[in-house]
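Question (not urgent): is this output format expected?
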Amino acid sequence: MRILFLDDDPDRHELMDRRHPLDEVIHVYDLDEYREALSKYDSFGMISLDHDLNDFTEVHKHRSYIGDSEGTGRDACGYLIKFLHKAPEEIIIHSSNEDGAVEMMLFLYSRGVASRRVVFNDSRDQ
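Got this back:
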């Protein structure tokens, strides 16, 4: 299965690889890489999105975000709507930011896209 994983925390990327050793995980750390991956690949079996994307990376160079946004997972949901033909049945919101995760899920739901929240356990013991 091909998984698109958006998160700015490198440790979470390592954990994702350990959790899905037999899958092809496409690692993206910011919205520019995320949009590139959506354009490049034909399909995904799962997409997993974080909300807060500026905690571990520098402020993005291009600042090509929706409206006045700071480049969050909400923007990732907005870009996903443009690529619904590539959207898998399983869209995961793994953000630990509860308000942000709910906002993302409500945004997707309002456009007829199902998602579910799975809080990403950051334990390195997994």
